[in-house]
Every structure is written in structure tokens, then in C-alpha cells.
Amino acid sequence: MMIPALQNSLSTYLILGALLFAFGFYGLVQRRTLIGMLISAELVLSGASINFMAFNRFLAPDPTVGQIFTLFIMGIAAAEAAIALSIVIAVYRNYRSIDAEDLVDMKG
Fold first, then answer.
1. What structural domains does the chain harbor?
2. What is the pTM of this model?
3. Mean pLDDT, 10 residues at a time, over the chain (108 residues)?
């Protein structure tokens, strides 16, 4: 009987956003391939977006502020994905691998 009460509370959304952020951060630290790191970075941005929307829904006097921040984060995530994928393709063409450990000779 407590499940409907949990679905419409700020803490539920904040916990979900924190879990997404933590999974993304863990993936950034643990993944060895550049594609895995890119997916993990998207999870981090999704967790931040959920937190902005939760604060917007439950605490903000002006409802458009959180939505504008979330749209801005979505735009940044799309640009980040496009640039990162082009870098991954360029790295694969030069090194024939997308493993991050193989790129140590790129240090300048």
C-alpha cells in the first residue's frame, strides 16, 4: 500500500538520480573502452537531469527553470556524444583499438 506514496515524492526521484549518477561514475572509473566510458558519461548526465527535474517539480516556484536546465543538459549530452564518437572513430582508425589503455603513447 505504500508504493503509490513512494512514486510521487522528492526522495524517490533523488534516489533514482543518485543511483544513475553513481552507476555512471562507477562505469567511468571501471570501463576500459572508450565506448563504455561514453555510455557511463551519458548515465551521469541523465542522473543530473533527473535531479533537476525533481527539484523543479517539487521545490521550484517557477516551473520552467528546471526544464530549461534539463534541455540544456540534453543538448550538451548530444554534442558530447557526437564529438566523442568522432574521436573514437579517429582513434580506432589510427590504433585499431578503442581500449583506453592502448592510448598511453598519445601523451605529449
1. 3-106 (1.10.287.3510)
2. 0.77
3. 66 92 94 86 91 86 81 89 87 80 66
